[in-house]
Each structure stands twice: as C-alpha cells, then as structure tokens.
Amino acid sequence: MDFALSSPTRLWSAAEVLTRPCPVPAAAGVYGWHFDEAPAPGLVAGQLLYVGIAPRHMSNRPSTQNLRKRVRYHFRGNAAGSTLRLTLGCLLGLELRRVGSGGRMTFGRAGEASLTEWMAEHAQVCWLEHEEPWTMESDLIAKLDVPLNLDQNRHNGFHATLSKIRSDARARARELPITS
Hints:
180 residues; alpha+beta; two-stranded antiparallel ribbon; 7 helices; 5 strands; globular; GIY_YIG_cat; GIY-YIG catalytic domain-containing protein
C-alpha cells in the first residue's frame, strides 16, 4: 500500500480535483502529496512528501470527513484547517497571522490565495480508499520518508527544521495584531 502512495500510477492536480464531478471518492482512505517543485531547500521535488488520512478516528462522535472533502480542502482551504497548508505556507515564507478572535492562524486572504496558486501549479495528490485509515497512518509515516509530516515523525531528518520554522512562524504571529 505504501508503494501506491510513494510511486503512484496516477497523480491528480488541483484543476482535476476541483472539477465536477470530482474524481476523488467520497470515501475513507489515505492520500499522498507530491510536488514538482520542492517547497524548501533539502526536500526533493517529484517525491512523496506528505501523507494524510480521512477521516481521523473519532471514538466519541462520527466524522463527516472523507477523501474528497479533505483533498479539496487542502487545495483551497486555509492554514487553520489544513496542517499541509500551514506547513507549506511557512516553508514558502508566507506571513502567518492570527485572525478573527485570535484563536486561529492563517496566511490572510492574500497569503492563502498565493498558497492556493502555488499548490495549483506544483502540488499533485494520489489516494487509496481504506475503511479504517487511522489503523495504517502510523505504519505509513514510519515506513515512508514524508518530511512534511510532523506527528509521529520525529525520526525524519527534516523534523527539527520544520518544527522550528512552524514554531517561529506561530511566535511571530502572536506578536502581530489580529487581522480580520
């Protein structure tokens, strides 16, 4: 299964994923992100850099998330709701800001639009349906070299660098005024 994410037979662009009908199934599963341009020095373009699951395992309530919702959100959402977008924006040097009441952080309208454009140009995704994706997330992160994943990935050589970049961006955002 990890080979299907690291060396997929097909990758999908934002333009393809955001069309109707959407090719991404409204089902549970895992997804992998590839980039034709590395978002930071030290990362390799053209390789799998991030994996995610949908839905997350929630024992106290059912999740409404699925592959289609999650993948589409990563392509057009914001950093407050997408760890992938938060990571990419920080690596690309976008300014993280507190928004609304100050509890959420995004790159603001202009920054999120810039990130959406960058992803449309450079990001591609693949996926696999799986009824209980949370049962395989740890194993995938342990087996694959996915430097943009932080959770459960301390063994990765890029972990400390990415952690510092994101931590510094959050610290700077806390010093700046809240934006609308």
